[in-house]
Amino acid sequence: MDPRALPFSVLLILIAATTLANGYSPPPPPPTTVYPAPPPTTVYPAVKTVEAAVEGMVYCQSCDKFGSWSLAGAEAIPGAKISVICKNHKQQVSFYKVFQTDSYGHFYGELKGLKMTPHFLDHPLHACRAKLVSSPREDCNLFSNINNALDGAKLRYEEKRVKWTTYEAVVYAAGPLAFRPDHCSETAPSPSY
Hints:
The chain is mainly β. It has a domain at 49-180: Immunoglobulin-like. It contains 2 helices and 9 strands. A hairpin with a 3-residue loop joins β8 (153-163) and β9 (167-180). Pfam families: Pollen_Ole_e_1 (PF01190). Keywords: Signal.
């Protein structure tokens, strides 16, 4: 190295050291854009639907109670069919569905699709009736009029509800309804009080 270049090199080193010692530093990197974190996702509980349902029993009335509304001695009919018919306030059929009894003669059916308007006559208590459709028993397949089943038994609200996590049903009672045997005498027994 040339001895004349040495003082020049030392001078450059001193200038660089002085500059760094006086707080000079390279420019900072450009700032990164920090976006705020999105708010936590709100978890809403599942929407609970409230449905209407109907339940009841279907029996075979004993011959000794023929002509009355008594079900003493009656037998439950598994596999019997009943219908629920609802009419709107203009007397137009707004709902019709057939339900079948279980092995104990009990039926339970959801009234899915029943449109209820604010009009009070469209409420199931006023609009719907349960009727007998058919009995699987050949020895007990005639309609009786117990609970006005021939015109349609009115539904009753007995403050019963079925509740699950995302489901709730108001359960209306119908009947009980009954078929009668065809071999009973046609004379009605005299009422006993």
